[in-house]
Amino acid sequence: MSKFIALGLAAALSGLLLTVFSSGLTSVEERAGALGWTLSPDQTPEERVTLVVIDEASIAEVGPWPWERVDMARLVDAIDQAGAQLQLFDIVLPESRPGDEALIASLQNANGAVLAQIPDLNGGTGIAPVGVMTHGFTGASCESSTPVQIPNASTYVAPAANFAAIPKGHIGAPIEKDGAVRHSPALVCQGGQAFPSLAIAAFLQLSNSASWSGEINPGNSLFGPQAVMSLSAYPGLDIPLDAKGRMRISFEKAPEAFAAISAADVIAGRYDPAMLEDAWVLIGGTAFGMGDIVPTPYSGAVQGVELQARLLTSLLDVNVPYTPAGAIFFTLLLCAVFAAALMVLAIVGDRVAAYGLPVAALVMPALALGLHSLILGSSNIWIGWIGSALFGTVAAASLLLLEMARVRMERSQVFGNLNSYLPDDIAREIAYALPNANVNAHRRNVTLLNADLRNFSAFGEARPPEETAAVLHYFYTRATAIIERHGGRVQEFKGDSLLAMWDGADSAEARKALCTARELQKDLNDTLLPEHAISGLEPLALGIGIEQGPVLIGSIGPAHRRSLTMLGDTLSITLRIQEMTAELAQPILVGECFARQLSDEKLESQGSYLLSGLRIPHTLFAPAYGHAAKPVVSMKNQPALTVLSGGKR
Hints:
By secondary structure, this protein is an alpha/beta fold. It contains 18 helices and 24 strands.
């Protein structure tokens, strides 16, 4: 269930990111999404559309822009004499100038000519309209938003009024926030009248129809465009539009596929006339000062006239790219596939999830982009990829975080379980370090306390195991609480005894250990150890031995079966001192190294003894008590048994 919740949260977060960062993510989607075109562009030379450019060489030869109208007339005549079918001007002639009559005459005498007009679609410039916009389109309403919302222009720049008889098409295009132009409105409304784009006006001009008309209808399938524009003069030409009434510009063709001729060469006749014969000729400016530069997927600086050529060729091929009406369903379907794959990775196993989910977070965006690019390159359909890619990454990251949280929780649980059996540092080492077959031990100075319940074996023999376990559990629990309260930790439980340790071998640790021993004796005498022995048994007694010194602590053994160990004379001496508590009838005995740290404490020497298994005698001390100590052995009700006190470790 938690995995499904994580996927649901990932979907919600992806939607939120797409909404909040829509501008930046859209730019990423557009730039990377164009790889379907740019990785393998169409290099076939375009012979139907030819560019005549007003470049730096033309300005140097003919004169600075804007040219004299007679020079423009010479250019129009030269193109017409070469046999061009149509001349399309990607430049605007907004003012009346001397020689307009000659230019207008040349345009009217040409096989076909269309001038440009520019509606303002980018927020308004605050300037008054210039010129006169003419040649409107009928059949599409500027008042209704069904099936598309035709963009409206607040102002415009159009040719002067004396060019009113010459057909016109708009070259207005919304500029994206990254400066690119990727769409062109098929129609633009201004003053309640719709005006066609330059590319569509080219078709309408050649139709010789008295009026330019058509209609826009909604798409009829999930795989089709959101809307379709049809022209009355061209029954078979269906132009796909998006919900904003825009055509997507195709970058399927490589820039090198479009032939360009300098305008000065056309005027002077320095070109191959076959390049213009029966061609649609686009006249536009590419000189630096003309300011018609836009970024494209191929280059950061391309002349705007190339975009008009791309619109024309995609219309001629009846292959305008579009986003399907059901693109959101394709995205959701791909997200569902990604979610299913991620669930499999998360469920199969810990190792698969640990390695598979990070890989999936990188691979899924690549798969989404690859699928988009494949469909775009083969069908010229833009399905989009950023939504599914973002979901794949966020979902994989969410499941990975969930998996990490689960593993961390399990590790914490394992550590907690280990820590209940082993000291903290040892449990941490076992839980978080890789096993090895080397000796992993280190020397440290410590204070050791060994507490032993004597006569417990006879008690366990006489009582049910449940009662024995309860007594031993109580002893371990109370003793541990007292030891930890005084800053120590239990190093080991073994049988009916425990071994506690304090890091350090100075007077501070010595006082803590002695206070612990006294509190253990008092607390357990008051709560655990009975005043009188059970009939037929010696009473339980607590013997405590304490000493300070160096020990070696660590783990030894093969990698697959390690053993925690503590080695050193200090440990042996502490255990033997505890055994001597029964022999000397003292509840607490301490060693001589420990006693040196407590010079201000009243300690009574018990003499020097050769402890069992050791070769050097050791002097033992017993602390004075603030209360009456319980006798170690009571002869009351003592059966005829031989009692072996203590025991060997």
